[in-house]
C-alpha cells in the first residue's frame, strides 16, 4: 500500500547545520528504502514565505501569498512510500529526523483507476 508521510514542523526550530544534517540523514534513509523497492518520492519544501495559495469561490480565482491557515507548524516536506501496512509506514516515519522536532502525518494514498495513456497519445 502506498502512504504519504507529511512532515510538519516549526521552520524556526532548525539551525542551518541541523537542516543540512537532517537532509543528509533523510537522503540516506531514502536510498535504503529505494534499494528495498519501498521509496517512490520525497522532497523538502521551500519555506512557507515562498508559498502561494489558490481558492476558487463563486467562479472567481483568489490568490494569496503564503498558506491560507495560520498555524505554528507548517508543511515542510513529504515522502511517498510503498510498504506492506500501516505498521511498516509508522516504523519508517519514526526513523525520519523531522519526527524528533515536529510531526509526521501518515496517510494512505487512495488508489486511482489506471489511465489509458494510448488514447491521449493519438490526439
Automatic annotation (TrEMBL):
Family indicated by similarity: Belongs to the YciI family.
One Pfam family linked to the record: YCII
Organism annotation: Rubritalea spongiae
Lineage of the species this protein comes from: Bacteria, Pseudomonadati, Verrucomicrobiota, Verrucomicrobiia, Verrucomicrobiales
Stated name of the protein: YciI family protein
Domain YCII-related: 1-111
Domain of life: Bacteria
Amino acid at each position: 500500500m502506498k502512504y504519504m508521510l507529511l512532515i510538519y514542523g516549526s521552520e524556526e526550530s532548525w539551525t542551518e547545520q541541523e537542516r543540512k544534517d537532517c537532509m543528509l540523514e533523510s537522503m540516506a534513509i531514502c536510498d535504503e528504502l529505494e534499494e528495498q523497492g519501498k521509496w517512490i518520492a520525497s522532497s523538502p519544501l521551500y519555506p512557507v514565505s515562498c508559498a502561494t495559495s489558490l481558492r476558487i469561490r463563486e467562479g472567481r480565482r483568489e490568490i494569496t501569498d503564503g498558506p491560507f491557515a495560520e498555524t505554528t507548524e507548517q508543511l515542510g516536506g513529504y515522502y511517498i512510500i510503498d510498504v506492506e501496512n500501516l505498521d511498516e509506514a509508522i516504523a519508517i516515519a519514526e526513523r525520519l529526523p523531522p519526527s524528533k522536532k515536529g510531526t509526521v502525518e501518515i496517510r494512505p494514498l487512495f488508489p486511482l483507476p489506471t489511465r489509458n495513456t494510448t488514447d491521449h497519445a493519438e490526439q
